[in-house]
Amino acid sequence: MPLNARGALALLLAVNLLNYVDRQILYALLPAIQRDLSLSDAQAGGLASAFMVVYMLAALPIGYAADRWGRKPWITAGIGLWSLATAASGLARGIFGLFAARSLVGIGESSFVAISPSFVAEHFPSQRRGRVLALFSMAIPAGSALGYALGGLLGQAWGWRNAFYAVGLPGLLLMLLTLRLKDPAPRQVPAERPSPISSYLALFRTPSYTCATLAAAAMTFALGGLAVWMPTFFFRRWGLNLGQGGMLFGAITVVSGILGSVIGGWLSDFALRWTSRSYFWVSGLGYALGLPLAAGALLAHDLRWAVLFIFSAEFFLFLNMGPLNAVIVMVTKPHTRSMAFAANILVIHALGDALSPTLIGLASDHWGLTRALLAAITALAPAAVFCFLGLRFYDEDSGRNVHA
Question: Which of 66, 232, 235, 380 could hold 291 in an S-S bridge, CB 3.0 to 4.6 Å?
Fold first, then answer.
């Protein structure tokens, strides 16, 4: 029997949590991996780059294929692939084995992430999609924090190889459960479908989609940089040791991320009573409020104020997680939504957290870490601008898909 809407949401939320656990656990295990495999810092960093590059590039062909031939098989296959690849990471005997395993994790996770948001959203009516996607996106901070925590605990207790086995193999059970999913939107592919390149370029002729994607890219640039460098900032500015800095920022992020994601989704759906453009309003105001609060965290003269400011900043920045995904669903047609999220993945990471950690590091070498981070968070200003610009186009763009 196929799962109902709530059952599908619960299952795919669990899968999404595991997605981020399997993605982030590597970073918690790196010290032990480097010691056992004699890896340099550059080689260890290359493992993260291998995942991100493959993850971004794989999204495009997968999104096109899923929209053309159906989404459910790609969801199921993606879960199985990344779960096996995560477990296989524990078998690696050197850098090339780990590189191959993490690349396969990237392909599997790309297959899921490019397809699942629209798949989840289409189980629910349009007026509830903001909060549904916010709940689904809550897995990002929660799963990431869980990945770090499990990596540390399991790695310490059982060793890094067994840690990979422990988090990888349960995904196979979730893969089997996805066989009960039913695609909520039967494919209605035009008889004459443009080439993949033309299909992807056509997405950016919808102004609301372009604005939402560029806003998310600018936010990812700022937040991705903070995610990498804030523990180091706490270490240098406030004298916390590396463990304390990482735990403090991780705790701030998971609590503020969950609260911001859930409240942002609820608020944007609630505000639909007064404005059809609430998804852009909530996201844009969140960015506008998050920028000065993030600056306050970097410039505070007391650690308690710094913690309060960064918590508040992340809360407002995470308000957009459900609403901007809802924009993408609302302004694209069902037979292009997997491609829409695939292109979104490529753009937000290529322009966002694939660049910002390195650029912040280079700027820090010249001007200091505080100034480098202050420069990075100015990306939140164009993020807000893109959201407010999207207000001009949303009603017309979403009106074309009012029954989708």
Answer: 380
pLDDT recorded at residue 65: 85
Encode pLDDT of 240-298 as tens digits.
775 666 678 778 888 998 899 889 988 998 998 898 899 999 999 999 999 999 999 99
Which of 139, 294, 288 is closest to 225 using CA atoms? 294
CATH (domain of 250): 1.20.1250.20
Together in a domain, 17 and 120: yes
Contacts of residue 316, Cβ cutoff 8 Å, sequence gap at least 6: 260, 285, 286, 287, 289, 290, 293
Q: How many CB atoms lie within 10 A of CB 237?
A: 16
Give the Cα separation of 128 and 327 in Å (integer). Answer: 12
Q: Are residues 86 and 165 in the same domain?
A: yes
Name every residue whose Cβ is closer than 8 Å to that of residue 211 and which is 6 or more positions away in sequence: 280, 386, 387, 389, 390, 393
Helices 196-203 and 337-350, packing angle to 10 deg: 70
Dist CA 353 CA 334 (whole Å): 28
Give the closest residue to 7 by CA, choosing from 124, 166, 156, 162: 124
Q: DSSP letters along 15-78, please?
A: HHHHHHHHHHHHHHHHHHHHHHHT--HHHHHHHHHHHHHHHHHHHHHHHHHHHHH-SHHHHHHH
Whether 87 and 164 have beta carbons less than 8 Å apart is answered as yes
The tally of domains found in the chain comes to 2
Alpha carbons within 13 A on the beta-carbon side of 367 = 11
**Do 374 and 286 share a domain, yes or no?**
yes
The answer to whether 123 and 8 are in contact (CB under 8 A) is: yes
The C-alpha atoms of residue 5 and residue 135 are separated, in whole angstroms, by 14
